[in-house]
Amino acid sequence: MTRIYLIGMPGSGKTTIGRQLSKEMGLPFIDLDYEIERREAMSVTSIFSGRGESYFRRVEAEVLQSFASWQVGFVMATGGGAPCFHHGIQVINQTGISVFLDVPAGELARRVVAENHRPLLGDTDREDREEVIRTLLDKRYAYYSQANLRVDAAGPASEIIAVIREGLKSYSKG
């Protein structure tokens, strides 16, 4: 049973890569943020603004734990903070293979500059957003660095998936 958890910052490509990887591997795809939205019947942004980050992180941990207890394989795009709160990285590493999609802060800022649904990034301009991302990445890196695999995810999706697939082969042998 293969469970692959994609971790990394907002804009690192977890959902895009996760969808394609799950299709190639014939595994179900799970988007953790979508599952939280489904459970709470509101968007992540609305949860943050209406109930606060602490509430969101508790729900996120509960939903992550629920999927971690499944008896089937899957590919999951976690939320950017999922590994960093409520022992998320331990849950992830104990129940599957974690893959850190590592993207430089400048590239992350470029990717998310047009998006307004990133609650921790707010409505900052590009320069400020890059600084916010850099600060957040610095705080989260200790968790992300505990991943089983680290992949440079600044390139094309097809190349990133090929590197992940090769890494998964090596990881399963080790």
CATH architecture label name: 3-Layer(aba) Sandwich
Number of domains: 1
Helices, by number, come to 8
Regarding CATH, which class?
Answer: Alpha Beta
- CATH overall fold name: Rossmann fold
Largest sheet: 5 strands, parallel
Mean pLDDT: 90
- Which descriptor suits the 3D outline? globular
Q: Round the Cα radius of gyration to an integer and report it.
A: 15 Å
Provide tags for this entry.
about 170 residues, alpha/beta, Rossmann fold, 5-stranded parallel sheet, 8 helices, 5 strands, globular
Characterise this structure.
The protein has helices spanning about 15-25, 30-40, 45-50, 55-70, 90-95, 105-110, 125-145, 155-174, and strands spanning about 5, 30, 75, 95-100, 150. It is of the alpha/beta class and about 170 residues long. It has one domain (about 5-174): P-loop containing nucleotide triphosphate hydrolases (Rossmann fold). It has a 5-stranded parallel β-sheet with strand order 2-3-1-4-5, sandwiched between helices. Helix 2 crosses helix 4 (about 55-70), helix 4 (about 55-70) runs parallel beside helix 5 (about 90-95) and helix 6 packs across helix 7. The longest helix is centred in the C-terminal third of the chain and has 19 residues, at about 125-145. The radius of gyration is 15 Å and the shape is globular. The model has no long low-confidence stretch (mean pLDDT about 90).
